[in-house]
Amino acid sequence: LPLDERLKRRIIDGERNGLEADLDSALETRPALAIVNDILLDGMKVVGELFGSGQMQLPFVLQSAEVMKTAVAYLEPHMEKNEDESGKGKIVLATVKGDVHDIGKNLVDIILSNNGYDVVNIGIKQPINAIIEAAEQHRADAIGMSGLLVKSTVIMKENLQEMSDRGVADKYPVLLGGAALTRAYVEDDLRSMFAGDVHYARDAFEGLSLMDRVMA
Ligand code: B1M
């Protein structure tokens, strides 16, 4: 198989033997982020499709996710860092209550950290209390919530309600992302019920441009 195909297959098959060597070869011809975006994420997409259609069982999805994480960790030191920019602002990042998916959230962490933001990544399955507490404790400028389950889109709505109820809605602009969300849901439904500022980020790069806008 050609290199790109082989790397994609490694994600789909959850095969990590020889992963680093293939990543090294890929790094000779293109930037680390392009490898993630153009090849590895494609592989994860196929995993999602196979799992969704019952052609792949959960333990294999987990293996694919592990290979994905290993690959991203290997590539991370090669990613472009914007050294001139730092201290642009601080964001608390979390995957919402009941949701364990964190590959996307961790990519957002990498992109924001490499571009001048302080990221307080508090992990997965975080209830809104813990998110608000972290924001207060670290004096964050914004809150970012990730969630991939359809259920998580409902949790996000409850979280925004809780922020409004606790009077911190206008203190922290909120960024939301994850596969089950849609722009319309965030910008129409959630925005109309939230007393603060809430944005939808389709991917980590939109997360970065939104942070740049929010902090401007
Ligand atoms: Co799960 N899973 N999973 N899973 N999993 C999905 C989400 C699913 C769509 C698969 C499917 O059925 N086709 C489905 C959800 C269906 C639904 O809700 N209707 C699903 C399911 C059902 C489940 C379980 C319930 C399965 C079970 O137990 N029977 C279970 C849930 C556990 C739980 O959360 N309580 C489960 C478990 C798992 C694994 C543990 C095996 C593993 C996760 C490992 C891990 O993350 N550490 C896993 C995986 C890998 C997936 C799929 C296949 C891939 C997700 C992924 O990492 N994508 C996924 C299929 C899919 O998403 N279509 C699926 C790559 C990642 C980079 O994309 O996170 O979307 P994503 O991030 C993107 C953007 O969304 C955005 O930026 C990133 C790109 O730049 N983004 C943000 C994300 N967060 C952001 C935050 C921002 C800004 C942008 O600002 C704050």
Summarize the structure in words.
Residues 88-216 form the B12-binding domain. Methylcob(III)alamin binds at residues 98-102, 146, 204. Catalyzes the transfer of a methyl group from methyl-cobalamin to homocysteine, yielding enzyme-bound cob(I)alamin and methionine. Subsequently, remethylates the cofactor using methyltetrahydrofolate. It comes from Spirilliplanes yamanashiensis. This protein is α/β, with parallel strands linked by helices. The protein is 56% helix and 11% strand. The protein is built from 9 helices and 5 strands, in the order ααααβαβαβαβαβα. It binds CO-5-methoxybenzimidazolylcobamide. CO-5-methoxybenzimidazolylcobamide binds at residues 41, 44, 47-48, 51-52, 58, 61-62, 65, 93, 98-105, 107-108, 144-146, 148-150, 175, 177-180, 201, 203-204, 207.
In short:
By secondary structure, this protein is of the alpha/beta class. The protein has helices spanning 3-13, 19-29, 32-52, 58-75, 103-114, 128-137, 150-165, 183-193, 204-215, and strands spanning 89-95, 117-121, 142-146, 174-177, 198-200. Helix content is 56%, strand content 11%.
Question: Unreliable runs, pLDDT <50, ≥5 residues?
Answer: none
Q: How much is the radius of gyration in Å?
A: 18 Å
Average pLDDT across residues? 97
State the total count of DSSP E strands: 5
**Cα distance, first to last residue?**
46 Å
Order of helices and strands: HHHHEHEHEHEHEH
Helix/strand/pairing category: alpha/beta
Major sheet, described briefly? 5 strands, parallel
Order of strands across the main sheet: 2-1-3-4-5
Ligand catalogue: CO-5-methoxybenzimidazolylcobamide
> Which strand-content bin applies to the residues?
5-15%
* Percent range of helical residues: 55-70%
**Helical region count?**
9
What would the principal axes of the Cα set say about the shape? globular
Family: Belongs to the vitamin-B12 dependent methionine synthase family.
Protein name: Methionine synthase
Function: Catalyzes the transfer of a methyl group from methyl-cobalamin to homocysteine, yielding enzyme-bound cob(I)alamin and methionine. Subsequently, remethylates the cofactor using methyltetrahydrofolate.
